[in-house]
Amino acid sequence: MNKEVIILGAGISGLSCGLELQSAGFRNVRILAKDFPPNTTSDVAGGLWFPYKAEPISRILGWSKRTFERLMQLREQFPEAGITMTDFYQFFPKTRTESAWWASAVEEYRPLDKEELPEGFQGGYFARVPIAEPHIHLPFLMERFQAQGGVLEERVVASMEEIVAGNRIIVNCTGLGAKQLLGDTEVFPIRGQIVRVRNNGIKRSITCETAEEHSEYATYTIARSEDVILGGVAMTNNWETGVDIGLVDGIIDRCSALEPALKSAEILGHKAGLRPGRTTVRLELERLSPTCAVIHNYGHGGSGYTVNWGCAEEVCSLAKDL
To answer: What is the CATH number for 261?
Structure first.
């Protein structure tokens, strides 16, 4: 297809959109970004498939299901893509009788029996889900994009007016950057911080719901091939990107209470980052001129690696309609 495509942002969303558009026949695709892997927000993420802090659920479910299917396909076709599988456990302080709202998106799912629950928890779910390990997966996507003729350009775009030109499609995957780029007041940061430890045989990943509805703490473990990610925090409207060493002991204590082997695991590093929150994910087309349109795709919260392919397919469908 002849239209020039400019993608803003080189995280998981931007790279996925680039590859999807190439697969649909768009030949002139360029990604403009201030940062590329390994220096994006997506590099800080754990890469676990799990819908987290993104709305609306009605759309998130469909995107999550498609992303699950695509990740399974990629894992089968490309062992080098860095996609592993994990036994995922979600624990709740109160009994749950209903299924997880995302249950229909996965292949293996069941409620937990009482004897599987740690002390202090009354309900939970099990699912078998993929992890797209960012330090492997993002370079894999970037290399494929370039191998198929895609261009990466390091550039700061301060306003849409800079790039509105000609017969062009713009795909806006700027995440938190949309707040400044577009003046979008619905965008907000959700600060995260993790501890990365060596994996000495842990196979399962865990997330715990707290009894406090709006707690700033988020207890979870993500067991990857060589390390385990321990989290963490979910601090809404906190713009601090530096590591707060004062939070580290609490993170380790909460995680090792569920997985005792983590207490003595070798610490490999600490990371902090800002999840790109929004009241609802924005995925829609906006006409900028008779020949130029922007497709917005941002505000995925903590679900970037859970919805990326589903969103990319929808972006591609909108682009083809143009």
So the answer is: 3.40.50.720
